[in-house]
Design goal:
mainly alpha; ABC transporter involved in vitamin B12 uptake, BtuC; ABC_transptr_permease_BtuC; transport
């Protein structure tokens, strides 16, 4: 009987994987110009340069791959954040990672005047990783970081970095003009080169997240109990923070700050598979991937010839979710 218990989470993961697949295929077939399903295999395996082939292979496929990768990263980062802070309202932006990336992008725009996506990715990665390191050093001084300490340190660093960013962009109109295109959060015009640049960071972050899964289960029992069971609290927090930083840095660098995705993915995954992190982490990643691909597709369908950015669509969904969480359940996990 006990061996049958993992069946439900396994089925949930299969259903989430199916949802990602359906969203992926729909993203290739639908948009301002609707293509038949038969156009997809033709474009991928029998490319002849016709209009439908170009749309699928050159335009829709790269951005969909990036959306899956970024959604996976931010979904897992959200689940880890909620676990480490024991806060149902936590999401990756609370650690100051997005703010660090934003400040680095603004500095890069002001110094180099270069708004190319390839250059922006590296500035954003550097800023996000530096911000993660600063939060980690401040929050884990001594024996380790408490959930409240992590949240407060991240919020303080984020507020400070955001203030500096605002001061720079308000004093420089050219920098503000370039920054606003990155800050809205979008997978538009992102290609395989962007995915390749952030993939190593995403893979390392994913490995660290899975390593951190058992430690996070023990931390949920309370720091004293976890320490009594032989867990190194400081090491567990460090690995978790590193995973969150790398995953969020990869996602933010590729597409800009996309709010509420981590919050959404963490909650949906927890409802589907429960609180055991061995199941929760991959479930949150798949949920984030499906949600971001669906949001990007919805933005293209709503916008017609233009498009509504994925970050805007998720904001419209995430804000009501945030209010619902505050009203219907306790903040602490």
């Amino acid at each position: 009987m006990p061996k049958a218990r993992p069946v439900a989470p396994a089925v949930a993961l299969l259903l989430l994987a199916l949802a990602v697949t359906v969203a992926f295929v729909a993203s290739l077939a639908l948009g301002s110009r609707w293509l038949g399903l038969d156009a997809i295999p033709h474009a991928l395996f029998d490319y002849s340069g016709r209009d439908a082939d170009i749309i699928v292979r050159k335009l829709r496929l790269p951005r969909t791959v990036v959306a899956v990768l970024v959604g996976l990263c931010l979904g897992i980062a959200g689940a880890l954040m909620q676990g480490h802070t024991r806060n149902a309202l936590a999401e990756p932006g609370i650690f100051g990672v997005s703010s660090g990336a934003a400040l680095a992008v603004v500095i890069g725009l002001q110094v180099r005047g270069n708004t190319s996506i390839g250059t922006t990715v590296w500035f954003a990665l550097a800023g996000a990783l530096i911000a993660t390191y600063v939060v980690q050093r401040l929050a884990t001084r001594g024996t380790g970081a408490s959930p409240v300490g992590l949240a407060l340190t991240g919020a303080a660093v984020a507020a400070m970095l955001s203030a500096v960013t605002s001061a720079i962009v308000l004093l420089d109109a050219d920098t503000l003009d370039g920054y606003r295109f990155w800050a809205v959060g979008s997978v538009a015009d992102r290609g395989f080169d962007v995915a390749g640049q952030v993939l190593p960071f995403a893979l390392v972050g994913l490995v660290l997240a899975m390593i951190n899964a058992r430690s996070l289960d023990l931390l949920a029992l309370g720091d004293d109990v976890a320490a009594g069971l032989g867990l190194s609290i400081r090491r567990a927090r460090f690995v978790g923070l590193a995973a969150i930083g790398l995953l969020t840095a990869a996602g933010v660098a590729a597409c800009g700050p996309i709010g509420f995705l981590g919050l959404l993915a963490g909650h949906v995954a927890r409802r589907l598979v429960g609180a055991r992190n061995l199941w929760l982490i991959p479930a949150a990643g798949l949920t984030g991937a499906a949600a971001l691909v669906a949001a990007d597709l919805a933005g293209r369908l709503i916008g017609g010839a233009g498009e509504v950015q994925a970050g805007v669509v998720l904001g419209l969904i995430g804000a009501p979710l945030f209010i619902m969480v505050v009203r219907r359940r306790a903040v602490a996990l």
